[in-house]
Write a structure and sequence with these properties.
With 176 residues, the chain is mainly alpha-helical. It has seven helices and two strands.
Length: 176
């Protein structure tokens, strides 16, 4: 895929992601919003590879930092949460191509990486910044209330992108 097509497609998927940020199609699980914002990021990784996924994610996160009520903190947390999926799936596609078994294995690794990473970042960054909690107090917050929504978001993002790539002709049309 040439650079122009990659940038245009990444830009369109970034715009879709930003539109999903402002669309009230979400569910709150504690302070974590279960939404569809990461689906275009993962879709970009599946369609465009690592570079397209990263470009889509970074551009969208920067725009979210400027335009959303949660500002840079919410955008950073969304980026940190979804980046493992984008990076790992992008690397899997680079090495194995778009094949189901390697993608499922990559998803499993990304799921674990996201949950572990978000536990760390919530306890040591988000809770102290958002809630003004000392780290010792943040560590008393039940881990399940952080892991469950992040796992749910991983499943939603992967399943949504997977269905769009493998159950439609989107990939063939993009590469035509």
């Amino acid at each position: 895929m040439n650079r122009t097509r990659l940038l245009v497609t990444a830009g369109m998927l970034g715009a879709l992601s930003l539109a999903l940020e402002f669309t009230p199609l979400f569910y709150k699980f504690g302070d974590i919003k279960i939404d569809l914002v990461g689906v275009p990021w993962v879709l970009a990784a599946l369609l465009l590879g690592l570079a397209g996924g990263v470009v889509t994610s970074v551009v969208t996160a920067l725009l979210m930092a400027l335009l959303t009520p949660t500002g840079w903190i919410g955008a950073l947390m969304k980026f940190l949460a979804t980046a493992p999926m984008v990076i790992i799936l992008g690397l899997v596609i680079r090495k194995f191509g778009v094949k189901l078994k390697p993608l499922l294995a990559g998803f499993a690794v990304a799921l674990v990486a996201r949950c572990a990473g978000m536990l760390f970042f919530n306890y040591y960054f988000a809770m102290p910044v958002f809630w003004n909690l000392p780290v010792e107090a943040a560590l008393q917050y039940p881990a399940a209330l952080l892991v469950i929504p992040n796992a749910a978001l991983s499943v939603i993002e992967f399943a949504g992108a997977y269905l769009l790539v493998f159950r439609t002709r989107l990939r063939e049309r993009l590469n035509a």
